[in-house]
Amino acid sequence: MAQFVENAPEVVLATAKEMLKKGLVEGTAGNISARQEDGTICITPSSIDYEEMTLEDLVIIDIDGELVSGTRAPSSEKLLHLAALRAYDDVGSVIHSHPVYATMFAVAHLPVPACIDEFAIFIGGDVRVTEYAMSGSDELGDQAVKALKDRGAALIANHGMVAVGPNPKKALHITALVERSAQIIWGAGRLGEIHELPESVNTTFASYYEYMRKG
Fold first, then answer.
1. Smallest Cα–Cα separation from 140: which of 154, 129, 156?
2. Can you list the pairs that 17-23 forms with residues at least 24 positions away whose Cβ atoms lie under 8 Å?
3. Cα(158)–Cα(173) distance, rounded to whole angstroms?
4. Where are the transmembrane segments (predicted)?
5. Any idea where the domains of the chain sit in the sequence?
6. pTM for the whole structure
7. pLDDT of 158
8. pLDDT tens digits for 71-86?
9. How far is CA 192 from CA 35, 77, 101, 108, 117, in A?
10. Residue of 37, 66, 77, 118 marked catalytic
11. Could you confirm whether 52 is annotated as catalytic?
12. CA angle 182, 85, 141 (to 5 degrees)
């Protein structure tokens, strides 16, 4: 059975507001989705400020992207969310965000390396960068699915970041962890050479990721 989120609308709304509070998005940017027990998807609407967003603004769509309920238009990035949810049964939630430092890496087409102790436990390894694809397109979803293989996050070339987890809280933790790591690595690069962890260490840590991903 596919991973789902209990009380999905409440959890999505709370996580969206926390994402804004943490500075991982600005204004109406970014989006969050969560799979419900019946297979439908609760997703944030398009162009609604997170500070003003209410439960009534959230949208329910099916796995094909068709509207089930709600009065708003679903996020313009719904195809990205649906691609990840269709590809990975163990993913219950998808978060797309625009954190500053992680997006710097995405614009430079550089992965965020797993060079901070225990990073791979939560992410699975280095955070890959997708090939460029236009925002809102099926191709973007396809590229994200490839980059998310065995990973909790991927950078979207020239755009931002996507994170997946069993629930929105876990996906937000991954988002914040990647952003913090990207900031540290960027700063360390200004100080001198970046020293990556021994491959054997990251391999060991990555072996724990599959358990973390399942919550």
1. 156
2. 17/50, 17/51, 17/53, 18/172, 19/50, 19/95, 19/97, 19/172, 19/175, 20/50, 20/51, 22/172, 22/176, 23/99, 23/100
3. 22
4. none
5. 8-213
6. 0.96
7. 98
8. 999 999 999 999 999 9
9. 43, 38, 18, 19, 18
10. 77
11. no
12. 65
Q: Which residue has the tokens 């054997």?
A: 200
pLDDT along the chain (215 residues), means of 10: 96 97 90 98 95 96 96 95 97 97 98 93 96 96 97 98 97 98 96 92 89 70
Q: Would you state the pLDDT for residue 210?
A: 80
Find out whether 121 and 97 touch, Cβ atoms under 8 Å: no
DSSP track, the chain: -----TTHHHHHHHHHHHHHHTTSS-TT--EEEEE-TTS-EEEPBTT--TTT--GGG-EEE-TTS-EEE-SSPBPTTHHHHHHHHHH-TT--EEEEE--HHHHHHHHHT--B---STTHHHHHSSSB-BPPP--TTSHHHHHHHHHHTTT-SEEEETTTEEEEEESSHHHHHHHHHHHHHHHHHHHHHHHHS---PPPHHHHHHHHHHHHHHHT-
- Superfamily of chain region 8-213: Class II aldolase/adducin N-terminal domain (3.40.225.10)
Q: Which two tokens stand for residue 119?
A: 């990073």
Q: Residue 90's pLDDT is what?
A: 95
